[in-house]
Specification:
Order of helices and strands of chain A: HEEEEEEEEHEE
Largest interface: A-B, 78 and 55 residues
Distance between the termini of chain A: 76 Å
Shape of chain B: elongated
Largest sheet of chain B: 8 strands, mixed
Oligomer: heterodimer
Number of strands of chain B: 8
Shape of chain A: globular
Distance between the termini of chain B: 123 Å
Radius of gyration of chain B: 35 Å
Strand order of the largest sheet of chain B: 1-3-6-5-4-7-8-2
Chain lengths: 200, 185
Amino acid sequence: MAKGRLSGPLAVMLIAVGGIATFAGVVQKGAFGPDDKPPPGRFPVMEPSEPVEVRIPSLKVDAPVHDVGLADDGSIEVPALERHNQAGWFEKSPTPGQYGPAVLVGHADTRDGPSIFHDLRKVRPGARIEVERRDDSVAIFEVNSVEKFAKNNQPIERIYADFSRPALRLITCGGEFKGGSIGYVDNIVVFASLVEAKDD
Amino acid sequence: MSGRRSLATVALAAWIIVLTGAPALARAAPAPTPTPTVDAVPDGLFVEVSPSTAEAGQVVGIRASCTEADDDPPEDVEPATVESTAFGEVTVRPQFGHLTGAVTIPSDTRARSYRVVLDCPGLFTGSADTTINVLNDVRPSRGPATGFGGTAGDDDSTMVLTGGVVALAAGLVLAVLTLRRRRAA
């Protein structure tokens, strides 16, 4: 009969734990988070100046930026492993604040642990991203959406070819981890638009 | 002493320039001729390109005005020319009180910044100017390899949610069974 006496409290506990976990799961899925945020109609435009630093206050990211080019396989080069806590600005893209999408790439992690853009998928639409530039001005972007694409099947035009306004793309790795030469299957792409230009 | 001597040197240099007529140096010498710089642009004249940063091969729109602030009527009625090394010459025509036009930047244009100059009829070349930044459409064909550790994978919300639902269901089933057994006992 011991089994019978225990089953009551066990049922209560399972219901409680199950309820809490279900709720947590739903919250984590982003059911109560803000939806994608469309960019405002008016926007500033800045003169060209290369980025030197990127800050994402909501993720406590504050990192130097250096230039990166195109790798042989047609992907954007990534910062060298010893600079895994820096972001790379794709030198063929506009500088942040100019018309068009400025592209910054950063590592999610290395074998030693998390890197600069590890938590990028957690950034929320509406969050601010600040890019300090060589001319001491600061380009302030607002996140519109955070999306995930397979590495070999990306909406290239949407990510790299929208010149309708000054914008920013932050790219890192995510999705399933395969390891080896593949690494992660997907890329996390943050779409953001310029909302403010600050001189020094 | 040295001040007076340098003054004399400048005067001598100027004299030599005038005598030899060296054109480049003569232009550098302080002359009262107005140069078509931004400061000399009469009020109201402008030229702008949108977007001011574009890829080679893209179409850009041009807006300009050759009307000075105190002109009558205060709107553009005559076409003008806009020129740039980036796209050659293009005619802008009156529309909605300003001059407008559009031009395709040739796809073989080299990536850099180019000056864009407005030539108003009856005014100096370079009535107003602006800059267009040309980029090449170098686009990555696949996503960057930005992770090696495997710590940043998908979030665990699916697992948490599934676990939660399973536990909840098990708890409910167990509760029903217990109540039934108690009622039977």
